[in-house]
Amino acid sequence: MVHEHIDTIDALMAHYVAGSLPEPARVLVRSHLEMKPDNRSFVNGLELLAGDALENAAGVAIADRERQLQAIFASTSSVLPPVARPKHTLFPRALRDFVGFEVEDVPWRKRLPGFKEYSLDMDGCEVNLMWIRQGRALPAHTHKGMELILILDGAFNDERGRFGPGDISIADETIDHRPVAEKDRPCIAFAVSDGPVRLTGSFRQMMIDLIG
User: Fold this and answer.
1) For the whole model, what pTM was predicted?
2) What number of other Cβ atoms are within 10 A of residue 207's Cβ?
3) For 4-55, what is each residue's pLDDT tens digit?
4) Helices (H), 20-174
5) Which fold has domain 1-212?
6) What is the CA radius of gyration of the chain?
7) Where are the domains positioned within the chain?
8) Helix pair angle (9-18, 40-56), 10° resolution
9) Which residues lie below 8 Å from residue 169, measured CB to CB, with a gap of 6+?
10) Is 40 helix (H, G, I), strand (E, B) or coil?
11) Strand order in the sheet with 156-158
């Protein structure tokens, strides 16, 4: 997803401000900032630091200066202004604009009993919307790469704790987990990954989780 390792939300936000994330991951972060507006202050602070560093940097010649300036002026700030989410919508605006529909229109495909996905590939990433039935455990697994999951509704718990609406789960090859949706409602999430999963755990547990 990026050359440097990302293992914390702060590191993810720093890459977002630096513009080094692929577009699906940027959409995930923008959606997070809509759902967790208190976190915008941290991103604003990073942007101010980046601006100060740029202002104090020694000048260098820019190749194709006019084209570069046009691209800068055409770009928008990475920090979204406060957004009033329309009533009866689940997806943040950034995600809704990205996928082109709301949750009730997702063309889900059943992958396992109690587990549905809508998938696409973009910028070298696998991008998924996920629906997990309440109480459903996903098979234990680790990752051959990095996975970001933004919880849109409901929640899941794993060995690290609870992830609820607006939270981001960051997992890589060092994380071996078995997410379990909470029992009161389905868990709906948006995931971006740059590598496949590898199933772990005992054969018996794997069969139980696959059957659901």
Assistant:
1) 0.80
2) 10
3) 678 899 899 889 988 899 999 999 999 999 999 888 878 887 767 655 444 5
4) 23-35, 40-56, 65-74, 93-99
5) Jelly Rolls (2.60.120)
6) 19
7) 1-212
8) 50
9) 147, 148, 149, 151, 158, 160, 163, 179
10) helix
11) 161-163, 156-158, 180-181
